[in-house]
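EI: anyone free to look at a 131-residue chain?
SC: sure, send it
EI:
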Amino acid sequence: MRLIRRPEDWPRDGSGCVATIGNFDGVHLGHRAMLDAVGARAEALDLPRALVTFEPLPHELFAGEAAPGRLQGLRERVRSLGAAGVERLLLLRFDRARAAQDAEAFVREILVDTLRTRHLVVGDDFRFGRE
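SC: here you go
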């Protein structure tokens, strides 16, 4: 798996990817189902499997010391995602500027312009963007 920390370092090869986005604070059964869906679609489209997540996790920025503990630390998270078949991991810094970004700008900057996402898989409770 390739770990990428800045959008400008995302590979410009090929024709895009199949992606998912979320906290992925551990690879539990719900996450495995999503990653399986990413894998199936990626295989059908012959595209790499990509995942976008954040460090720190958004709730950690907002709740500070009151944030609940993680299921896995960062290194364990990265290893588990690679073992689950993720080929490219975009680990974005989550700070006040990212928190203030509206959904449309995030989709354009990250999902369209950077990843060139051809198919996106998200959970039913997924939400993003300022407010």
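EI: The first strand starts at residue 2 and ends at 4.
SC: 👍
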